[in-house]
Amino acid sequence: MRENRTEAAEGRGSSIEYADMLLLRFGEFTLKGKNRNRFEKTVLRHVKEMVKPYPKAVLSKEFGRIYVTLNGEPAGELAEALRNVFGIASISPVKVSRSEFDDILAASRRFLEIIAPPQGTTFKVNARRVWKDFPHGSIEMNKLISTPLLQGYPGLLVDVKSPELELKLEIREGSTYIFCDQIEGVGGFPLGTNGKAMLLLSGGIDSPVAAWSSMRRGLEVECVHFYSYPYTSELARQKVVDLARVLSRYAGVIKLHLVPFTEVQTSFTGIGQDNLIITLMRRAMLRITTRLAEREGALAVVTGDSLGQVASQTLSSMNVIGRATALPLLRPLVMMDKSEIVELSQRIGTYDLSILPYEDCCTLFVPKSPTTNPNLRIIEKIEATLPGYSARLDEAVTGTETITITPYGDEKPQDLVPAQSGLQEEWF
Ligand code: ATP
Ligand code: MG
């Protein structure tokens, strides 16, 4: 798990396994005034989904925060799942003590024992008295707790401005929360709060990363995959289903549209202009996806294109390909280096699947030298003169199979209500 960077640098222990509770903080969307309520509810729904496999854990919500009381469920495992919820900026493992001075001090001592800060670590206690009937004020508590702790740990150095270790105490009626570590969350916007887009999902490394990046910005995505049976195998199809399943861990549920592309693709092979095939194929994909987008109420198309990566991703190719749709074409990876994309795909868990060697329809009939500078007028002319071209695109749309994928492995028929919208809101 990725822990606080300072913690790693200091080489000290983590408080995670000592935690009774996880405190989740919301990300940047908290700035967005009137949408805030809706956004927080969406994060809650998503958190609830992630916590489902841990039945003893209990959720509660407060302004700008969610608390997950563990009741014996594994803190580390849960934190790892929850840090992937879009809209969560950070997570702190929290020790809960009774709001009695002696209990707070004992728990703080134990906290330090577990963290075992090395000699020379700079330190401060930061108490906040939320419950005004507690007999000691915040500033007084800083002293009352830090003095005995410093006596027990002579290696600690006080630094009230920017300490490496800040022990936070929130004194509330009934219980006091003690915490210091912060685990970085993925941040971004809660899922689906910025609309819906269709994502072109191939079996490669890039497009699953594009999907994750889009979801992180609050876009709901529906995946569209083109296959050319019998030229592409059942294994290639399964690979895409498996990739969508990894993505569903972040989305809760995800739709995958499988488009039969053989007829469209083979119609390009007889025209004697092999160097234009990729351009024609990509435009056909966009046209079909645009129709699916209209049907599904999506307002954009996302691809895994990255500038200059291959012939179809030169600026000139992007220009000619992009004109096949009137929808905004989003390319979240367009300015990223391949190494950065690979790193992200490893982090989100799609890399190992992506590198499996099954063929994609785009690797079939690939010309030796695809054009890097297609001419729009020539392409449009070819498309206009292809017999029955439009009907073939229609057939591909009608032949599209849609499956709904969840992290739990069951492919459900599309008419099932997605888990997210089916959830009740009265959990608290
Ligand atoms: P790689 O990691 O090998 O680059 P890729 O998936 O990015 O894999 P490209 O040939 O670079 O493959 O394709 C560019 C984009 O076109 C993809 O990111 C994807 O969005 C879309 N695409 C390509 N092939 C398909 C396909 N068979 N079905 C759906 N979308 C596809
Ligand atoms: Mg690519």
Automatic annotation (TrEMBL):
Catalyzes the ATP-dependent transfer of a sulfur to tRNA to produce 4-thiouridine in position 8 of tRNAs, which functions as a near-UV photosensor. Also catalyzes the transfer of sulfur to the sulfur carrier protein ThiS, forming ThiS-thiocarboxylate. This is a step in the synthesis of thiazole, in the thiamine biosynthesis pathway. The sulfur is donated as persulfide by IscS. InterPro entries: Rossmann-like_a/b/a_fold (IPR014729), ThiI_AANH (IPR020536), ThiI_fer (IPR054173), ThiI_N (IPR049961), THUMP_dom (IPR004114), THUMP_ThiI (IPR049962), tRNA_STrfase (IPR003720), tRNA_sulfurtransferase_ThiI (IPR050102). It is an enzyme of class 2 (transferase). Gene3D superfamilies: 3.30.2130.30, HUPs (3.40.50.620). Its EC number is 2.8.1.4. One of its GO terms (cellular component) is cytosol. GO terms for biological process: thiamine biosynthetic process; thiamine diphosphate biosynthetic process; thiazole biosynthetic process; tRNA 4-thiouridine biosynthesis. Its main location: cytoplasm. It comes from Paenibacillus typhae. Pathway: Cofactor biosynthesis; thiamine diphosphate biosynthesis. Residues 76-182 form the THUMP domain. It catalyses: [ThiS sulfur-carrier protein]-C-terminal Gly-Gly-AMP + S-sulfanyl-L-cysteinyl-[cysteine desulfurase] + AH2 = [ThiS sulfur-carrier protein]-C-terminal-Gly-aminoethanethioate + L-cysteinyl-[cysteine desulfurase] + A + AMP + 2 H(+); [ThiI sulfur-carrier protein]-S-sulfanyl-L-cysteine + a uridine in tRNA + 2 reduced [2Fe-2S]-[ferredoxin] + ATP + H(+) = [ThiI sulfur-carrier protein]-L-cysteine + a 4-thiouridine in tRNA + 2 oxidized [2Fe-2S]-[ferredoxin] + AMP + diphosphate. Keywords: ATP-binding, Cytoplasm, Nucleotide-binding, RNA-binding, Thiamine biosynthesis, Transferase, tRNA-binding. ATP binds at residues 200-201, 225-226, 282, 304, 313. It comes from the Bacteria. One of its GO terms (molecular function) is tRNA binding. The keyword Translocase does not apply. It is found in: Cytoplasm. This is Probable tRNA sulfurtransferase. PANTHER family: TRNA SULFURTRANSFERASE. Belongs to the ThiI family. Signal peptide: none annotated.
